[in-house]
Q: What sequence folds into this?
């Protein structure tokens, strides 16, 4: 099953402040730091046309009596843990998909669809009674259709997508409803007259591979109910799979050098956390959001594992140069590293270990100076020429720790 907490951030705020429970509520970022967008909304705000990603002033134009509350991420994490503790009473296989969603493997408990739906309804009732929040649950024979089911009826519902009914329930839906069909992929599919999930399922897999590459074959399997990955165990979910930071910039970035400056600031914070925990990584990912709030993610593999910021930053900037065409200014940037190893670094005879150790010592010295005299006591030269960017402090921001994507994790 897939469980999705309804309007999670806004629902938590309404739970802890009953006075706003029946009003239009949105959770927003810090307007002074240009994080002033709608992060979440409740059902009342949604009915009035407010959308996630709206700038706050736009949301207020749509709804004059809008209640804006600042995000409290620590509270949301705490509530999320309480809900997932309930899930874990039913199964050791609980795989988080963000703070408010999770897959649960109940195949050991349910002998048939009817029993699976009964378990789902029991979990929904418990979350309402014990936490005070509602969830929508999708029950199915694989993760993709379970996720699709949880999106079909909200709030507070259970939807079964079975082997017998998935063509009737899933295939008529717009192709964009399928997990991992993003905006760009949706446009490519629609240009090929693939408008629904059923159209996708009936399309030649060879054509999809030619059009979309490996992703095309994966999406064809999804649409045809052939996805068969397991739900991760609780212990697996606790393992570190990636290190990443992102930030919404105080100004729109309009040049390569501005983006490079931000990338290296983020790479420093990623490398520092990796080094403190004894990790090395070899796959670097770059996430970029333009000022229309459209984003993309690209990745590339290093020739050697590292936890040095200059290596991570250089590869991330290389990805940016190769993939961004400056159709719009850049609003936000993220850097992540995966393919992790822990402990002593294993190197081949061609690796420059002495150079790696020299850079590690330099970065640990910089961290020591910052710990004593403050983060801005020592900064990279490439950011000093940009007054608005030079005060970015990745240690004081609320950053996104990017999860490993579904395709990358398989």
A:
């Amino acid at each position: 099953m897939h469980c999705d907490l309804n309007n999670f951030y806004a629902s938590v705020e309404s739970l802890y402040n009953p006075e706003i429970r029946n009003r239009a509520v949105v959770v927003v970022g810090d307007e002074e730091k240009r994080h002033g967008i709608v992060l979440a909304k409740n059902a009342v705000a949604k009915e009035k046309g407010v959308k996630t990603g709206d700038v706050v002033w736009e949301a207020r134009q749509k709804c004059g009596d809008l209640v804006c509350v600042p995000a409290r991420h620590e509270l949301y994490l705490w509530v999320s843990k309480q809900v997932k503790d309930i899930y874990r009473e039913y199964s050791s296989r609980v795989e988080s998909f963000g703070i408010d969603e999770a897959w649960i493997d109940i195949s050991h408990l349910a002998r048939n669809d009817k029993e699976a739906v009964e378990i789902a309804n029991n979990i929904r009732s418990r979350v309402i009674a014990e936490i005070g929040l509602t969830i929508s649950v999708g029950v199915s024979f694989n993760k993709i259709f379970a996720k699709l089911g949880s999106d079909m009826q909200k709030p507070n519902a259970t939807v079964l997508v079975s082997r017998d009914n998935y063509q009737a329930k899933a295939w008529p839906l717009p192709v964009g409803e399928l997990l991992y069909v993003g905006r760009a992929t949706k446009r490519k599919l629609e240009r090929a007259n693939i408008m629904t999930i059923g159209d996708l399922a009936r399309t030649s897999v060879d054509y999809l591979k030619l059009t979309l590459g490996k992703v095309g074959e994966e999406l064809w399997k999804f649409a045809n109910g052939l996805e068969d990955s397991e739900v991760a165990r609780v212990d697996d979910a606790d393992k570190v799979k990636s290190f990443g930071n992102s930030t919404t910039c105080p100004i729109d970035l309009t040049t390569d050098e501005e983006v490079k400056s931000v990338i290296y600031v983020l790479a420093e914070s990623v490398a520092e956390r990796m080094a403190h925990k004894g990790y090395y990584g070899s796959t670097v990912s770059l996430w970029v959001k333009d000022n229309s709030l459209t984003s993309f993610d690209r990745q590339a593999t290093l020739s050697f594992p590292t936890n040095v910021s200059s290596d991570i930053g250089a590869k991330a900037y290389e990805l940016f140069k190769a993939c961004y065409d400056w159709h719009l200014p850049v609003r936000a940037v993220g850097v992540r590293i995966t393919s992790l190893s822990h402990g002593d670094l294993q190197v081949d005879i061609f690796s420059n270990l002495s150079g790696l150790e020299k850079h590690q010592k330099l970065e640990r010295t910089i961290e020591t100076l910052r710990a004593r005299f403050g983060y801005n006591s020592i900064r990279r030269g490439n950011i000093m020429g940009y007054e608005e960017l030079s005060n970015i402090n990745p240690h004081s921001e609320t950053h996104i720790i990017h999860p490993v994507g579904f395709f990358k994790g398989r």
User: Anything to note?
Assistant: Residues 347-354, 396-410 have pLDDT under 50 and may be disordered. DSSP finds 17 helices and twelve strands in the chain.
